[in-house]
TrEMBL record:
Domain eRF1/Pelota-like N-terminal intervals: 1-128
Protein name: eRF1/Pelota-like N-terminal domain-containing protein
Source organism of the structure: Citrus sinensis
A GO BP annotation: nuclear-transcribed mRNA catabolic process, non-stop decay
One Pfam family cited in the UniProt record for this chain: eRF1_2
Length: 247
């Protein structure tokens, strides 16, 4: 979530202008907004205009509305917020009911009479969701790996690594070993980039079969060879788990 402007008092009133950049941000917005808050955003509404001839013509216009939240729901990549308009506008009367749709890359302003510790914690997680993650997971199988960060309220996919691995048998065996080592190296680089042992309590490497064991061996050998201190100093916090698939 991009925090564009923040003007609030802890345990007091204030507003935050923010912009969702991925679907996880809409989930954070869903958890931040509560009945009684107000939300201001640009929306599109169909209005009727009286023509000189006496006829009426429907036109879609962009409006900036602020509504007092009554209720809301999330469907897919859209958060719908229903309430009464509280911002004077030539097309929508104050007190008229309206539905705002909050979508990706569309900024909105959230106003609360009370930004309590729970709301501030959710806002902090929205601004930096990795800051509250206490578990890292490398979910993998040959040629495919996902690096996930698991926090108190959600799981975030930080990286997806995919490499074509040839068959293990026959004349392609040499290519198999080379491709597998390249795959493990790509996963290692993503692991170093996204897993911070100052934040997470432990890291889980999970896979069907022996892929997890092979990668774990590669991880520790390369850590010793390159003196990768974050891995060497925290190898006891890396756990291997069997799964039925790498998805």
């Amino acid at each position: 979530m991009k925090i564009l402007r923040r003007n609030l008092v802890e345990n007091g009133p204030g507003s935050v202008k923010m912009e969702p950049v991925d679907s996880d941000d809409l989930w954070f917005a869903y958890n931040l907004i509560a009945p009684g808050d107000s939300v201001m955003a640009v929306t599109v509404r169909k209005v009727l205009r009286q023509m000189a001839s006496g006829s009426r013509d429907a036109e879609r216009v962009k409006l900036k509305l602020e509504i007092k939240v009554v209720d809301y729901d999330k469907e897919g990549s859209v958060l719908r917020i229903r309430g009464k308009n509280i911002l004077e506008n030539e097309h929508v009367k104050i007190g008229a009911f309206h539905t705002l749709e909050i979508e990706l890359h569309r900024a909105f302003v959230l106003r609360k009479d009370l930004w309590d510790s729970l709301a501030l914690d959710t806002l902090h997680q929205a601004a930096d969701p990795t800051a509250s993650a206490d578990l890292a997971v490398v979910l993998m199988q040959e040629g495919l790996a996902h690096i996930l960060l698991v926090g108190r309220s959600m799981t975030i996919t930080r990286s997806r690594i995919e490499t074509s691995i040839p068959r293990k048998h026959g004349p392609a065996i040499a290519g198999y070993e080379s491709a597998l080592n390249k795959f493990f190296e790509n996963v290692l680089q993503a692991f170093l980039k996204h897993v911070d042992f100052n934040v997470v309590r432990c890291a889980v490497i999970a896979s069907p079969g022996f892929t997890k064991d092979q990668f774990h061996r590669h991880l520790l050998l390369e850590a010793e060879r390159r003196q990768l201190r974050p891995i060497i100093e925290n190898k006891s916090r890396i756990i291997l788990v069997h799964t039925s698939s790498g998805y």
